[in-house]
Amino acid sequence: MPKMKNKASAKKRFSFTATGKVRANQANKQHGMIKRTNKQIRNQRGTVILDKSDAKIVKQFLPNR
Question: What is the pTM of this model?
Answer without folding.
Answer: 0.80
